[in-house]
């Protein structure tokens, strides 16, 4: 009956929202570009003072998009018809650049504009012909579009706009989504349906979704999209596919978004008919140069390549006894004349049975510092293992001063409950960005490494592995939209707080109801730590299910590689648990600066959230709480699962405030998350108990299933699994 | 620039349709349940006379859905608030059954209702307490829901409702969609995205889409859904998946939709741990009985199984030297106590190098007539080969009087341009349903075989292989929705004309503008014949691309089986082209009644649309047009391609009448269809020319590419390809 009731609620919600054009129910498709009627009368009146019209003097594809988006937003938010004109009638909003607008050229904005570069913008309230108006201006058209979206965001979030004076420019040059999308439309580690790219019907058929994807990215400043999986297929570089890519590039161009592709290093052999892909071979160089020149005939502003080489079985320069710089520079040289770049991933580990995985990227790349071409970025994951719920920052940050390092975050929740768990990732991103590398003394944060300020690099980038699919709401979980949003906002301005970003997103996406905004913010800000607790507390990591990575699998062992197992990472035994990475262990900690080492090296002082990352700790070890390690571990797991129940209660207070369809969606998802949190808790506690030989602390409910039950679970069709090829 | 312009048009369309609740653009998600404001004032006033309210005296899950849908429709179509109550206030619409409504019980409807059975309905205008009102009644709740949707359709299509008196009941008992959906969400021969069934998040997460899928089906009388691929995976029969299936069944139940699954014949071995799947083996029987009893504990109204056995490598009873009846009856026996049925597919052909594929189903099944259990339907494709653009009706229709035969149509356009070509399939369905088998003399149409009237079978069914995926508009091509719609309407009433069904769909989905309705109807009714002309004119068949079936491949030969090639079917040589299936050839024609044989047996009298299906014809043969066969073949191919251009011109007249988003979608799709029609034309004419050794008739433009170019095209990632396993 639960089900019937929920169905009726959805219907009722639909029935109650009859519009003049159509019957409509909210499905999340609009993302944060949701221009529903504002409710606060005072705010609406304040805004209406500026809705006499939109003035755009000279049109261009990008400026037209800005005007149309502004009209769309004002008409939706204020429920009033908004006209536009190419002359100033008095009042309203003037958009444009000094070169396209005589009015804007006549205003004294040049100093402000100087600071905003090619993508920044200036928004000011001023008077023209003695009439009050708002001016959105920039040096380039794309800046005007970014400024327009920023202004719309102010309205959506009900900010005061009197005397507004905003100057903004991005801290990072390349703000990019990486789509791990395959040509058959499966998405590696994708949990929101399948690929947006309908390759079969491209280039002839342009899905409205491509346009709305571009709108969403432009609204948060994302200016690049790598369309294909890092585990690349060379077919994407063949003529038929390049024509399809060009069609997407044509859609994205006016939104300021460049397309990038992944380059399969062995492409010269696979589609070029060569016998080698040796980066120093003249024929190989010639093939890539010709291929890259060809790409630019289809896509004049092609962005460049992301490359995963000599990693997890992918081909690379090491197959020919060359190093990563040899490979990257060969591609960079061919891209340079077109202003293209190479984003060469540092996520590598040797195929031989390795030493500590955490050390390998550093070992391979640090020696190459200074040997990369000017248009190469080395793309480094936030942590040294692989997108775990919590990792320390990657030791390469701060360790390659002569090389611009690009940040790679993962939005798709490969290790964080897929698209089923509510986990707001901005706190994870910020934890890494704000971490201090001490590379040049205190304040040498990862953010300053990435934004180039620490070593004065002008080539900078942040990439997010996309969590976007063809689910109607784009990301599967309505709240996962916030992680896409956060990536864009933080790449533009890494100093924004998780809280600010969350509040913007909540107001634009759900509601401006103050009490509910507060509740939602509280849920979101707590969610990542909650997930750490029920999955991998105290520094545990990489204990998930085999291959699909769904659910707990601390018992995983005896796989082709030790570092593909769980036992390798948690090292649990009768004495204790944890991976000793200090000077007495794998020495991974020694890859960091002495100041950082000092924080983690001693068992006594090591912050407990990283305890088992750096130390192998006796079960009886006394924790700060006074509990033994074993008791503390259990309490954290139980606390994590309990916190999801709290999240559930918080969400229930939004009934009737957020639309019924998304209310039901999230309610169902949180209850699945609660069941899966208990699953993680029980499976891990029961498994680790086989080593600790201790009881679950009294007062904590006993697991209702046996360890063998949890170990017996199989998920042959879990989504997002690596394709076979 | 084309692209920019089209993007702006879409935006403008969005900007101009501002509603009181939200900014909205039409994406086809609403299908034919589109309740936009009606435009004809007179009609609206006529309808408003009945909007005083909806009276539902006693609630039930299904009756509540009827009331909510009616409210939703009235409020949308008439843009007026519609209230409901459980007592008659005077006027309005009364819905219910005699047993749930005192008012309805009090009306003299019992005679009318008697004729409507368990699913039919009666809609009448009458007076209650001397107040005019409309009564929608039925014997069962589901009939009320069907009647409500029928009434809504009358409003959507602007029919007069004064003195309305409609009595309707379905001609076919089981009206079913077959989803060839795999558990990894790929869809075999699916071209509209991926599977609707998000198995990973079931049973906990109920997608709104499941509800809207059920609404759409109920609105056209579809009462069953086979959720999984006929190339079945036994995992669907395991407990975790049965719980997921049960969750879908719970959603569908109040809409009168039963769920069915495909049974992999070897399941007892694969998931049951038995050493055999021999249908006569006691352990195998016991296993299936236990499994089926288990299914009913989760899904008390489970519908039963569709089975593909001993076909294209699928396991079946013949692996154990048993026949199809042995296999079907074993399952039927276990299903019978639960009122479940078996739909056993007749699409079989031996694994040995065969004789004429067209003959094999008949050869295997006719001898089994009379040996199937009472709850078994034999499911027969409309034609003897495989869903070609045109085939004669299947010889089994009329040949198995003691066995209820179920029709299998294909909605997904495996051989008809995927989801890119506009092909309205009702004329194809009707051509088959109206064909006369002469099994019991003139008038023994296929429809009368299928509806049971010819041999007095009460167990009847029509299945459509679904063209539905997770594309936002469900079917990829907006017009492909009409094929889903047509299957439901024709399964309810096979005597409806293609034209009537098209007009209903057009008015509900696009517009009531009379001129445009006429244009759209003309496009749709012509579309199937147009496709036949540019793909397989004059009875040609099975000459498409290898494996993916995309595009032309008349040159396909040297494959594992002769009947998996094209040359096997067109038999082109220096002398002529076509497959002699007469008494002097494969004798396939002899499987039909003498009256049918007479129509096709002589080269002179054979209708030209089946000429090359039944005869091998010399290139110089004089056709009715006076042209030689070669010239006629060329002209048909060119005529087909030209007709697509005409379709393009017709569609262009709807600019500004249909919403901009769908206008752009269809415009792009028709131009792709035009390019692909020319591709088909050129590839086939150039290929057949290598045999005819004749010029393309003067006046017809020469192909711009060589035959070898067309033969060189490859499509490694064409959608819908069979999974490897």
Which helices and strands appear, and what pairs or packs with what?
Two copies of one chain form a homodimer.
Chain A: H1 2-16, H2 41-48, E1 54-56, H3 61-78, E2 84-85, E3 93-96, H4 102-106, H5 110-114, E4 121-128, E5 131-137, H6 141-156, E6 165-168, E7 174-178, H7 208-219, E8 224-226, H8 239-252, E9 258-262, H9 267-270, H10 282-298, E10 304-307, H11 324-335, E11 341-345, H12 357-365, E12 376-381, E13 405-410, H13 426-433, H14 446-450, E14 461-465, H15 481-492, H16 498-509, H17 514-535, H18 567-570, E15 576-577, H19 594-601, H20 611-614, E16 617-618, H21 629-652, H22 660-692, H23 707-712
Parallel strand pairs in A: 1-2, 1-3, 3-5, 7-8, 7-14, 8-9, 9-10, 10-11, 11-12, 12-13, 13-14
Antiparallel strand pairs in A: 4-5, 4-6, 15-16
Provide an overview of this structure.
2 copies of one chain form a homodimer. By secondary structure, chain A is an alpha/beta fold. The first copy, chain A, folds into 3 domains: 141 residues, 2-Layer Sandwich (Chitobiase, domain 2), CATH 3.30.379.10; 315 residues, Glycosidases (TIM Barrel, Alpha-Beta Barrel); 144 residues, Alpha-d-glucuronidase, C-terminal Domain (Alpha-Beta Complex). Chain A is 38% helix and 10% strand. Chain A is built from 23 helices and 16 strands. Chain A has an 8-stranded parallel beta barrel. A 6-stranded mixed sheet of chain A has the order 2-1-3-5-4-6. In chain A, helix 15 packs across helix 16, helix 16 packs across helix 17 and helix 21 runs antiparallel to helix 22. The longest helix of chain A has 33 residues. The radius of gyration of chain A is 26 Å and the shape is globular. Chains A and B meet through helix 1, helix 3, helix 7, helix 8 and helix 22 of A and helix 1, helix 3, helix 7, helix 8 and helix 22 of B.
């Amino acid at each position: 009956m639960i089900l019937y009731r929920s169905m009726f609620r959805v219907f009722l919600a639909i029935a109650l929202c009859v519009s003049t054009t159509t019957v409509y129910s909210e499905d999340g498709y609009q993302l944060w570009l949701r221009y529903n009627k504002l409710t606060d009368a005072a705010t609406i009146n304040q805004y209406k003072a500026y809705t006499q019209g939109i003035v755009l003097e000279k049109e261009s594809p990008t400026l037209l998009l800005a005007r149309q988006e502004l009209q769309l937003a004002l008409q939706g938010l204020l429920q009033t018809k908004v006209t536009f004109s190419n002359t100033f009638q008095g009042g309203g909003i003037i958009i444009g650049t000094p070169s396209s607008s005589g009015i804007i050229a006549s205003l004294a904005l040049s100093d402000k504009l100087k600071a905003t570069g090619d993508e920044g913008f200036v928004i000011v309230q001023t008077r023209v012909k003695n009439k009050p108006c708002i001016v959105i201006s920039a040096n380039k058209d794309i800046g005007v579009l970014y400024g327009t979206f920023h202004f719309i965001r102010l309205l959506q979030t009900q900010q005061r706009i009197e005397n507004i004076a905003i100057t903004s420019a991005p801290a990072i040059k390349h703000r990019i989504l990486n789509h791990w999308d395959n040509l058959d439309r499966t998405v590696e580690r994708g949990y929101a349906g399948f690929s947006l790219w309908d390759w079969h019907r491209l280039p002839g058929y342009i899905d409205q979704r491509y346009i709305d994807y571009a709108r969403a990215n432009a609204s948060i400043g994302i200016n690049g999209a790598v369309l294909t999986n890092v585990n690349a297929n060379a077919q994407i570089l063949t003529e038929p596919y390049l024509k399809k890519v060009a069609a997407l590039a044509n859609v994205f161009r006016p939104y300021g978004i460049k397309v990038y592709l992944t380059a399969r290093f062995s492409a010269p052999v696979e589609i070029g008919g060569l016998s080698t892909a040796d980066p120093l071979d003249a024929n190989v160089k010639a093939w890539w140069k010709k291929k890259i020149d060809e790409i630019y005939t289809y896509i004049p502003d092609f962005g460049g390549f992301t490359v995963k080489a000599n990693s997890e079985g992918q081909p690379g320069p090491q197959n020919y006894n060359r190093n990563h710089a040899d490979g990257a520079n060969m591609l960079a040289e061919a891209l340079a004349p077109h202003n293209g770049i190479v984003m060469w991933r540092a996520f590598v580990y040797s195929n031989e049975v390795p030493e500590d995985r955490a050390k390998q990227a550093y070992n391979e790349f640090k020696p190459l510092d200074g040997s990369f071409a000017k248009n190469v970025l080395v793309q480094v994951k936030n942590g040294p293992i692989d997108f775990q719920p919590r990792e320390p920052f990657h030791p390469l940050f701060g360790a390659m001063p002569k090389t611009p390092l690009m940040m790679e975050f993962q939005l798709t929740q490969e290790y964080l409950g897929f698209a089923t768990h509510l986990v707001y990732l901005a706190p994870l991103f910020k934890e890494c960005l704000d971490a201090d590398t001490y590379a040049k003394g205190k304040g040498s944060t990862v953010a300053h490494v990435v934004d180039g300020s620490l070593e004065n690099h002008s080539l900078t980038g942040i990439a997010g592995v996309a969590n976007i699919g063809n689910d109607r709401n784009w990301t599967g979980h309505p709240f996962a939209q916030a992680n896409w949003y956060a990536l864009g906002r933080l790449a533009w301005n890494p100093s924004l707080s998780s809280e600010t970003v969350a509040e913007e997103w909540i107001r634009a996406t759900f509601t401006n109801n103050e009490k509910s905004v507060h509740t939602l913010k509280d849920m979101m800000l707590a969610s990542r730590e909650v997930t750490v607790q029920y999955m991998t507390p105290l520094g545990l990591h990489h204990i998930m299910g085999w291959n699909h990575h769904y659910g707990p699998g601390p018992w995983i062992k005896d796989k082709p590689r030790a570092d593909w197992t769980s036992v390798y990472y948690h090292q649990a035994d009768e004495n204790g648990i944890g991976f000793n990475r200090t000077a007495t262990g794998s020495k991974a900690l020694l890859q960091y600066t002495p100041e950082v080492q000092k924080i983690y090296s001693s068992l006594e002082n090591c912050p407990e959230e990283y305890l088992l990352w750096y130390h192998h700790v006796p079960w009886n070890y006394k924790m700060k709480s006074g509990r033994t390690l074993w008791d503390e571990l259990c309490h954290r797991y139980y606390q994590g699962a309990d916190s999801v129940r709290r999240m559930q209660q918080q969400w229930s207070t939004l009934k009737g405030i957020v639309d019924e369809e998304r209310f039901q969606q999230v309610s169902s998802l949180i209850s699945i998350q609660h069941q899966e949190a208990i699953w993680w808790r029980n499976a891990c506690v029961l498994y680790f108990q086989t080593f600790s030989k201790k009881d679950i602390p009294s007062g904590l409910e006993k697991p209702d299933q046996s360890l063998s039950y949890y170990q017996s679970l199989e998920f042959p069709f879990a989504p997002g699994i690596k394709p076979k090829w």
